[in-house]
Automatic annotation (TrEMBL):
Pfam families: Poly_export, SLBB_2. This is Polysaccharide export outer membrane protein. It is a multi-pass membrane protein. It comes from Frateuria terrea. Keywords: Cell outer membrane, Ion transport, Lipoprotein, Membrane, Palmitate, Polysaccharide transport, Porin, Signal, Sugar transport, Transmembrane, Transmembrane beta strand, Transport.
Length: 360
């Protein structure tokens, strides 16, 4: 025979490609379980889901803190009343606003008051300052009746940074402020905030609090803020889960809580493709910071069973996870044929040209 028939060549190519990997992504579970592999295959089971659940907790020192009586500080404005002595109470005139007759506490913590002289006010409560003024004025005023009020607060603040709508510092006054109240006044950028990454820094220590779970963890016990507290709410722009493979809309999904489940991640991607996906090939790939010491993990879910959806709804994905859905066997074969058929056409053309050349 002068040349191989086109059919024979085609059969040879099919046999040759049968030894190769069928085109398309797939997960080789056998390779994951070989000795020396840097990947660990883990089946998603009820036991695994239960063991991964961690109850939300709040450090006891935050819950046990109780605000003390307000203490005067630099920047506060005080309105001091000496009854029956308007010349002391309102030196600017009774027609002026209260603040105009107020006494500003200087940066060094002192203030001046007629006949009482310079007084160290910072660090005193309102009652302690009232008693001190009464004692000093008693040498010049008979049985002085003194009253002290803070009409301008400027010394005690809480700072806010990050994904708040208003990041202006909040001034604390004589009325205690809770964490939830401060967050409510600041407002949250709900679309871009990472609620699970919230931190409160107090006295040099940083506490990590999940705002989505904090109401469940404190049992209704408020967290009071302390002067100098710093509230930070990060953005979620680097908190993503990547859904790839045989889903309707492969994409990177950002999320703002710690409760994004595998079901939710697949749902945002449109779900498994009903035509091309394999229900028993749903994987969550989770990397390791030190791959040489700790293997990465590949969690496997067989989504063909109805019970698997209950598992997926309780399995939490983490930032950086890759959710991969493999292709069905028929899909792999169809993709193989789609790459093979153009090659077979070329073989037919080559064989035909060879026959025509040999006929001359």
């Amino acid at each position: 025979m002068k040349t191989l028939s086109a059919a024979a060549i085609l059969l040879f190519v099919v046999a040759l490609n049968g030894c190769a990997i069928i085109p398309g992504q797939r997960m080789d579970e056998g390779a994951l379980q070989r000795e020396g592999s840097h990947m660990q295959l883990v089946q998603i089971t009820p036991e695994l889901v239960d063991s991964s659940k961690q109850p939300a907790t709040i450090p006891q020192e935050l819950l046990s803190y109780q605000p003390q009586d307000y203490r005067i500080g630099p920047g506060d404005t005080l309105y001091i009343t000496v009854w029956d002595h308007p010349e002391l109470t309102s030196p600017a005139g009774s027609q002026q606003q209260t603040v105009a007759n107020g006494r500003l506490v200087r940066p060094d913590g002192t203030l001046f008051y007629p006949y009482a002289g310079t007084i160290k006010a910072a660090g005193l409560t309102v009652e302690e300052l009232r008693q001190s003024l009464t004692k000093r004025l008693s040498s010049f005023v008979r049985q002085p009746q003194v009253d002290v009020n803070v009409v301008g607060y400027g010394s005690q603040r809480v700072t806010l940074e990050g994904a708040f709508q208003h990041t202006d510092a909040q001034v604390l006054n004589s009325v205690p402020v809770t964490l939830s109240q401060a967050i409510g006044m600041a407002g949250i950028d709900a679309q871009n905030a990472d609620l699970s990454g919230f931190t409160l820094t107090r006295d040099g220590r940083t506490y990590h609090l999940d705002l989505t779970q904090i109401s469940q963890a404190d049992n209704g016990q408020p967290i009071y803020l302390k002067p100098g507290d710093k509230l930070f709410l990060p953005y979620n722009d680097n908190k993503e889960v990547y859904v790839v493979g045989e889903v309707i809309r492969p994409q990177a999904i950002t999320f703002k809580t710690t409760t994004l489940t595998l079901t939710q991640a697949l749902g945002r991607a449109g779900g498994l493709s009903p035509i091309t996906s394999s229900g028993d090939a749903v994987y969550v790939i989770r990397g390791s910071e030190k791959l040489s010491e700790t293997p990465a993990q590949v969690f496997h879910l067989n989504a063909r069973s109805p019970a698997s959806y209950a598992l997926a709804d309780n399995f939490r994905v983490l930032p950086g996870d890759v959710v991969f859905v493999g292709a069905a066997g028929i899909t792999k074969w169809n993709r193989f044929l789609s790459q093979l058929l153009p090659l077979s056409g070329l073989i037919y053309q080559t064989a035909g040209a060879a026959d025509r050349a040999n006929n001359f």
